[in-house]
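Worked example

This section walks through a single chain of length 512. The input is the sequence exactly as stored; nothing has been trimmed or padded.
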Amino acid sequence: MADLLMGLDLGTSGVKALLLNPAGSVVASASAEYPLYHPQPGWAEQHPADWWAGTVAAIRACLERAAPAGYAPADVRGLAISGQMHGAVLLDAADAVLRPAIIWADQRTGAECDEITRIVGQERLIDLVSNPALPGFTAPKLLWVRNHEPAVWAQVRHVLLPKDWLRYRLTGTMAQEISDAAGTCLLDVTQGTWSAAVLAALDLAPDLFPPIVGSAVVAGTLTAAAAAATGLPVGLPIAGGGADNACAAVGAGIVQPGQALISIGTSGVVLAYSATPSVDRSGPIPRAHTFNHAVPDAWYLMGVTQGAGLSLRWVRDQLGALEQGQAAATGRDAYAVLTDEAADIPPGSAGLLFLPYLQGERTPILDGQARGGWIGLTAAHTRAHLVRAVLEGVAFSLRDCLGVLQASGVAVTEIRATGGGMRSPLWREIVAAVCGEPLVPLATEEGPALGAALLAGVAVGSYPDIPAACAQVVRLAAPTVPEVTAMARYADLYPLYQGLYPALRVTMHALS
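Given that input, the structure is written out below as tokens.
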């Protein structure tokens, strides 16, 4: 049989394993879920042990699903991991995990962000790492642990990002991959090295952080213990991999200037390729992130909606219990039940707006204390209105992100659509109409796991480089074109949406 490439996507809701034939066909895939914990409002944590258990289960299930087609574990030639960004996995001298990982969605570190900005200086920090200190980033999480859990901090000997910790579990080798390290607020994004100046200013020992490796180079090989756990062959080459957004970009073919991506996963992302490490200067501080791409010597600008798919998941969990029961009984997806209801509601949700700030917000307001909610509720509104307003509120937030990228001077000539939320034709239509731009979905939606598999392929020589891999594998579907009437309605509502945060900011902060 042909050689296979495996991509893993370590997400917030679960982990996905995918097997790819280098010619471009997906042989098998499998997923495993794990919990997300909120010990206090605004906090978000996960247990790395859950990531490992989910990864083992997903890999084994994926291999089992490939077996009927004649594939064996020995056919897997390379593996790479995509992972949720910004998390902090803290290890002691024995490389044991010291506490639950504080993940990207956590918003507890406002005081630590202020501390970083005060110590380093706002402009100097941006000059050094291309980004301001934000609650989601890794650096303020480390200061929070040092400030609030000194007994834990005294034991910390290594800091790893989520997918880099998972690669360590597989290979026994510690390394920090460049596109993920860019989201720590500790990396010199221009040079691709840890910023000695920021580490020194924050009194963080350089040896806490492992060496930087590229995305599409071999960073280690599978140990005997990991092979026994997963069923994969001992010595399997494992590439650096990439941050989830960088891998999503690779999996969608966003590897050339002019290309952009809108993704709806747990968070929402608007990402545009950049040939230079340009920084958003459209406001007093950058409202979009500048990160290293998985493509060597390339970057991307990115705006983030913290609570995109998270908002719909909250509705499903809190308001859709019956639908979850029906889905279990009939095999129908609970999200589909809810969005089918929403499809019957005209654009604008009868004057109901939703702020998707369930985990604070990044672009464009950079406010960890922002709070979400429906505005404009009346007795005439139904649950279907509530759901549609959530879909529209997330779309308005994504338009905020797109507007920041456009204001910063990034040229966007094509927008591709990816992520679980974009599989919904209704949500895709709403986003296209709100943004006033056609969206080009992928013919096969496999997300960051596909990008990771392509990185593995480049690392082991299945493809000459990342653009060539994308040209061979990525296929597009027919574009979703904005509907004229809906686009006009959303153009009227968008300024009202934009006015809500300034009007409610003081109240939000008081409540938080």
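What to look for: Residues 260 and 272 are 4 Å apart (CA to CA).
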